[in-house]
Amino acid sequence: MIFGYARVSTFxxxxxxxxxxxxxxxxxxxxxxxxxxxxDQKEELSQLLNQLVRNDTLAVTRMxxxxxxxxxxxxxxxxLEERGIHLVILNLGIDTRTPSGKFILTVMAxxxxxxxxxxxxxxxxxxxxxxxxxxxxxxKQKFGLExxxxxxxxxxxxxTSKTVKEICKITxxxxxxxxxxxxxxxxxxxNDSC
Length: 194
Prior knowledge:
One of its GO terms (biological process) is DNA integration. The protein has helices at residues 16-23, 43-51, 70-82, 99-133, 148-159, 164-171, 175-193; strands at residues 2-8, 29-34, 57-60, 86-89, 94-95. It is 54% helix and 12% strand. It starts with a strand and ends with a helix. It is of the alpha/beta class.
């Protein structure tokens, strides 16, 4: 079965041109949705993707109807391919039911993988340089000593008889985070008193 998916970002936008293009491509059923592309949850698209079975085809007028960024799109394309579901992108002439369509998507996936690898390599090279210079501090702490929840947890630990487990439940931080910050707090306190 061939399913078409048409989406616009706002309720005042019109789906007519997408629907017309999909109908011209002999689509069995068209799913319509009005939701922003930046939103992670597209209910109609999610339901459609869940009901697709092997040898079904998903057709869209443009690639950006399925998602806003390349990573999101390639993850979806890989998922469809693993499940044996074909993809047709009308404006690009991509049809994974054909060898050339499969080839184009394979090349796109390869470029995306290369891009991800190059980003990781640049990151690792930058970290290595920062370590050699002695300026590498690691990932920025989400919960530093100045964090409101940490301050509250330390205050509770010093002024009440509550257990660490109870304190962490109250302040919504993990026990591991509490202990790391507690040790850091003790070091700072000791250095300040010297």
